[in-house]
Amino acid sequence: PYYQQEKFPKEDALVAKVNGKWEPTSIHSYIEQANQISRGLLAMGIQPGDKIAMISNNRPEWNICDIGILQIGAINVPVYPTISEEDYAYIFNDAGVKLCIVSDLELYTKVDAIRSKVTSLKEVYTFENIEGAKHWNDIKEAADQVEQNKVEEIKKTVQEDDLATLIY
């Protein structure tokens, strides 16, 4: 996204259909939100090397969180939305997933059902508003607790051969 911002800044870097209407996300907003995710995760105690699972269909929020996770040296664990609860429990335990971000109620319900089986899992966040669930905006709101220069410091330590993603 930083290359795109410098070379090809666009007002519609990401676009999604919301309630039947196409909603653009500018490259500036994309990077701003990714940095909020990074700072929010750091505020929550996420460190380089920690694993964060994401279970979602293709949507801008996924891309924003992916960059937010990766630029602080944490590891994205993208998981298929169609697998069983037992598969989620196995993957989360095997990877040592600390946080999980899901898109919707169906996925939240599946992950919530296995929370007690995954001792490393601290919290589950959702992209859609779900009663009783923490929302991904909660991560962004925690960003005020960490200065952006902390993210920039960590970004400088991330190497091209560091583990970025665990695919199961």
**Spatial order of strands in the largest sheet:** 4-3-5-6-7
Task: Give the amount of beta strand, in percent.
Answer: 15-25%
Structural class: alpha/beta
Largest sheet: 5 strands, parallel
Principal-axes shape call: globular
Which blocks of ≥5 consecutive residues have pLDDT under 50?
none
Q: Approximately how much helix is present in the residues?
A: 40-55%
Total helical elements: 7
In N-to-C order, the SSE pattern is HEEHEHEHEHEEHH
Q: For the CA atoms, what is the radius of gyration?
A: 16 Å
Distance between the termini: 26 Å
Number of beta-strand segments:
7
What is the secondary structure topology, with strand pairs?
Blueprint: H1 2-7, E1 14-18, E2 21-25, H2 27-43, E3 51-55, H3 60-70, E4 75-78, H4 85-95, E5 97-102, H5 105-114, E6 123-126, E7 134-135, H6 136-141, H7 148-157
Parallel strand pairs: 3-4, 3-5, 5-6, 6-7
Antiparallel strand pairs: 1-2
